[in-house]
Request: fold
Amino acid sequence: MSQPIWILGASGYVGSAYQRLLESRGIPFRALPRTDLDYYNPATLTLALHEAKPAFVVNCAGYTGKPNVDSCELHKTECLFGNAILPGVLRQACGVTGTPWGHISSGCIFTGRRADGNGFRETDAPNFSFRTNNCSFYSGTKALGEEVLAGARDCYIWRLRIPFNEVDSPRNYLTKLLRYDRLLEAENSLSQLDEFVRATWECWEKRVPFGIYNVTNPGSVTTHEVVELIQQSGVSKKNFQFFSDEADFMKRAAKTPRSNCVLDSSKLLASGIVMSEVHDAIAKALKNWKPE
Reply:
C-alpha cells in the first residue's frame, strides 16, 4: 500500500492495539500525536491531509478519563473537545479532502436493552445521553460525537464496548474486576480489544458500506459470570464482593451514573466480519493471561 494509514491517538489503549495490528501485517502507517500535528485545528488538519493524502485515517483520539469516567466530571472541557468537537473537525477536514476514515465511538451511549428485550441496534437512538438527561458527562459527549457525524460521507463509526484482552493493564476490563474492592452486578456487551481492531480494520479492508457498526463480541455477560470464569481459570481465587445494588454503588463508589447495556452486533456479522462469542473470548483471554 503506497499511501500510509494515519492513526490519531495512537498512544492510547486502542491506538496501541491498532499499531500492533498494522505492524503485524506489514501495513505502512503513521502514528500521529498532537505534538506532531494539531488535528484539533481544522485548517492545519485539512492542509496536512491535502499534502500527505493518506489512504485512510483511524481516529482513536478522545477523552475517557483516568482512572475512570468519574474524572470526566472534573475535566469537562477536555472531554467535550476530545469526544464531540474533534469528530466534527475530522468530518470537515476529511470531507474537504475526500479522505475516508473511521471513528472509534462507544456503546456507552445506551443503557439496558431495547424494549423488546433485544440488544440495541445501530438504528436505535441513544438512551443514555444529554438528551435523555440520565448520563455521565463522558457518555453525553460520546453521543454528541455521533450526532456531529450523522450523515457523514466515507466514514465508519465503530462502537467499542468495555475492552479487554489477555494483557494485564489498567484499561483492561478484566484487570479492573481483579483490582476493584467491590463489584457492581450488571449485564453488558464487551469488545475483545484485538478482535475489535481487527474487525474495524476489516471494515475498510473489505470495503463494507460506511456507517455505524456495533463492534462487540456476540452475546452478553453478567459481572457474576465473568467472576466465575476468572475463578475457574485460576487467574484469581479472590472472594469477590458485590454492591447490594446500583444505588449502593452510586452511594459508595461512583460520582456519576454508569452505562450497562447490551448491543446487537448482527450488522457486523452480516457484513462478513466475525468475532468470537463473548464468553469464549473471555475464557481465552484468561487462559492466556499475562500478569503485569
Notes: The two ends are 35 Å apart (CA to CA). The CA atoms of residues 117 and 284 lie 28 Å apart. Residues 76-97 form the longest helix (22 residues).
